[in-house]
Amino acid sequence: MLDNIQKQLLKEVADLYKMPKGAYNIRANGEKAARNTTENIDIVTKDDKPGIDIIIKDGTKNESVHIPVVLSESGIKETVYNDFYIGEDCDVVIVAGCGISNCGTHDSEHDGVHRFFVGKNSKIRYVEKHYGEGDGSGKRILNPVTEVYQKENSFVDMEMVQIKGVDSTHRVTKAELAEGATMIVHERLMTHGEQKATSVYEVELNGEGSSTDVISRSVAKDNSEQIFEAAIIGNTVCNGHAECDAIIMDNAHVVAVPKLDARNVDAALIHEAAIGKIAGEQLIKLMSLGLTEKEAEEQIIGGFLR
Amino acid sequence: MLELKDLTYQVEENNETLTIIDHLDLTIDDGKFIVITGPNGGGKSTLAKLIMGVKELTSGQMIFDGEDITECSITDRARKGISFAFQQPVHFKGIKVLDLLRLATGKNISVNTACEYLSKVGLCAKEYIDREVNSSLSGGELKRIEIATVLARGTKFSIFDEPEAGIDIWSFQNLIQVFENIRKTVKGTVLIISHQERILNIADEIIVIENGKVKKHGPKDEILPELLGTADAVNRACSKMS
Ligand SMILES: Nc1ncnc2c1ncn2[C@@H]1O[C@H](COP(=O)(O)OP(=O)(O)OP(=O)(O)O)[C@@H](O)[C@H]1O
Ligand SMILES: [Mg+2]
Description:
A: mainly beta; 10-stranded mixed sheet; 3 helices; B: Rossmann fold; binds adenosine-5'-triphosphate
């Protein structure tokens, strides 16, 4: 069913060595490769467009959903719509991710449109990893769109990771938060070669006491380019914080665009951005422990992106 | 043995040449516990950085165990057995105390072994082992971790730049014990830069560096009374200003 390349990709994007426990839907080369549902988590194929609905019952706790996508044929271009309907009082982990292996000459592109409807008091941890490999001239392209609608007192913790091999990414993440809701985003990104990555966040804090923390750590090497845009809109008593921390190397280009939009005197919004090369003293310290300059650099970047 | 021959280090500032280390000659014998002292700005840290290769000599020669290391990189010197605890430790985002100690030893040491190094510098190991070596640590904590990395390397030549700075007096006693232990157990050479009488007191030899030169060098029993008897740091500073 899944070949070795696809299994390898699954390992990279979802830490999956075998079929996961709990609910899952694995999509390979544009088709459903495997699916499992549980008593509390249903997965239904959409009939109007490509994609699935993931329906999680009220009160579902300590369960997980894996929905990885792998592309191993050159030249596949797809847009997939996945909607998550998460009930109230849930506590679930959702692991998405896309791995592309492109050894051919045609571009491979996966554009995932994910919408999350998070019920009251629910807690979601969402992990999304992107990974590309293959030495063909065809590009590996990922353009994910994520929309999050959080009800009262819900909590969403998102981890977005793209460390290797994706030529071009344009990520858009939008969220709307109701009273007492919290959204935390940790983005980790590394670009090299001629890669381009754009990440745009727009978080609307609509409910009293809602809060968000959007944190991006990135490393840009070679001739790569990164654009990070974070807009936080505070419509009420709320707390918003965005942070972009980037290491720039070689001939890379990094742009950080903060946008804070306060529409209430009690909206407390903060943005921090720092772009710079690896500190010389850090290299010197590790070299004085016996590491070469290259090894020191790897350790510093590895730690930074952890 | 470390031989420093006619070391000079100059910097250009506003089209002027400043001589920080001035034709300095010094021989450091093996297995000695040596304390370098002298007025602020005298050139102690600069000398230590020249030995580690962090700064490049303007002229002169350095021989370590018979081998000319003048042109060696920091990495090469480290691998030949020189270690350096910086006066101002750096911090890292994401690198944990345990990671740093593992890098220092060059081995995948166990948590227990790492904890032993931390205990040696008076840190409650369990609380620190998993912490990032970042700016959330206090100055004194960073300083102790810095010292621990050098202890963990256990090389034949270790330099500590003002290890006592920023360490509270309660722990200071402990720290003195750490260095006394090193003195007893380590076969290598230990070079400590310090202004503390208590540390000067456990030295085999004392070197006084002033204006980029060796002002005095001799056994502790000879140098320390001179230092304490004549001008203490305060007097010297005052006389300089007048
Ligand atoms: N790159 C530089 N540019 C200008 N001056 C420098 C430079 N590096 C060192 N110096 C000067 O050289 C002198 C020696 O500095 P160094 O840090 O070695 O002193 P020190 O003996 O360690 O002093 P302290 O006891 O305060 O630690 C100082 O006056 C310092 O300002
Ligand atoms: Mg100094």
